[in-house]
Amino acid sequence: MKHKVYWALKVLNFDPSMSAEKRKLQLLELEEMRQNAYESSKNYKERIKRYHNQKLLKREFYPGQHILQFNSIFRLFPGNLKSKWSGPFIVKEVKPHGVVELMDLDSKDTEKSWV
After folding, report:
1. What is the mean pLDDT of residues 73-80?
2. What is the pLDDT of residues 23-36, one digit of tens each?
3. What is the pLDDT of residue 37?
4. Domain boundaries, the chain
5. What stretch of H or E contains 33?
6. Residue 105 contacts by C-beta under 8 Å, 6 or more apart in sequence?
7. Which DSSP state fits 106?
8. What are the E-state strand segments in the chain?
9. How far apart are CA 99 and CA 115, in angstroms?
10. Long-range pairs for 89-94: beta carbons < 8 A, 24 or more residues apart
């Protein structure tokens, strides 16, 4: 049995030490390809984020300003017509980190909204 295995290795020119070395090189190449793919994906995400952030408009609100509020949880119900905008509101107070206290013109109720 050993003779057949040795003969097969000899015929196929299959050296175990060389095959181990070749396998290590292949694993290193695979790791390098994974690293390149990771870096490429990271760069793509950063570029897309920069692009979308350029499109955002910075809004500044001042007390006494009249505004309409956009309803981002808008859903269409069959048969009902609903507006995506609610209001009008008056800006009562502008707080740090984008929080605005709004006062409803009709009911004089106040609510805090993150803008």
Report:
1. 58
2. 899 999 999 999 99
3. 96
4. 2-55, 66-114
5. helix 16-55
6. 87, 88, 89, 90
7. T
8. 66-70, 85-94, 99-104, 110-114
9. 6
10. 90/64, 90/65, 90/66, 91/61, 91/62, 91/63, 91/64, 91/65, 91/66, 91/67, 92/63, 93/63, 94/61, 94/62, 94/63
